[in-house]
Automatic annotation (TrEMBL):
The keyword Transferase does not apply. Residues 89-148 form the NfeD-like C-terminal domain. The keyword Glycosyltransferase does not apply. The chain crosses the membrane at residues 12-45, 51-70. This is NfeD family protein. It comes from Hoylesella nanceiensis. Keywords: Membrane, Transmembrane, Transmembrane helix. It holds the Pfam family NfeD.
Length: 150
């Protein structure tokens, strides 16, 4: 078994690269993708019969170089329309929901947005009835301010 692995180290590096790619699909950070790049380039060194210590050093160096040069390019390429990615409550602004409890004048009602219920008020103090579609325009603490969609 040891002789097989020693004679076919390229399979080891190929396996490491594939595991890194699969892991990257679940994370989406492009760090593990850089490790995969290092592993795939190390397959070449393994096929050239370089010593194992050299392969490990090559893997480490290529992975670090990928993190500094490949990762920023990938992030810019794949997230070019979203320079600032909103999260949590900030991501609700602009979302569309449905009124599930009437919003009367300046009184609170409730809207359902992406399966979550939020206390809501109308942006222009108009009545918005149950079942109408609304868009979130502002967020104050736990209360969303909405406008009626036409």
């Amino acid at each position: 078994m040891y002789d097989f692995l020693n004679n076919n180290l390229w399979l080891f590096w190929l396996f490491i690269g594939l595991v890194c790619l699969i892991t990257e699909m679940t994370l989406g950070t492009f760090f593990v993708f850089c490790l995969a790049i290092g592993a795939f380039f190390t397959v070449i060194f393994s096929l050239l019969s370089c010593p194992f210590w050299f392969q490990i050093v090559a893997f480490a160096v290529l992975s670090v170089v990928s993190i500094f040069f490949v990762r920023p390019v990938m992030i810019r390429f794949l997230h070019k329309e979203h320079n600032e990615r909103l999260s949590n409550v900030d991501a609700l602004i602009g979302r569309v929901g449905v009124v599930i409890e009437d919003i009367k004048g300046e009184s609170n009602g409730y809207v359902k947005i992406d399966g979550d219920e939020w206390r809501a008020v109308s942006c222009d103090s108009s009545d918005i009835l149950n079942g109408e579609r609304v868009r979130v325009v502002k967020m104050d603490s736990l209360v969303v301010t909405v406008e009626r969609l036409n």
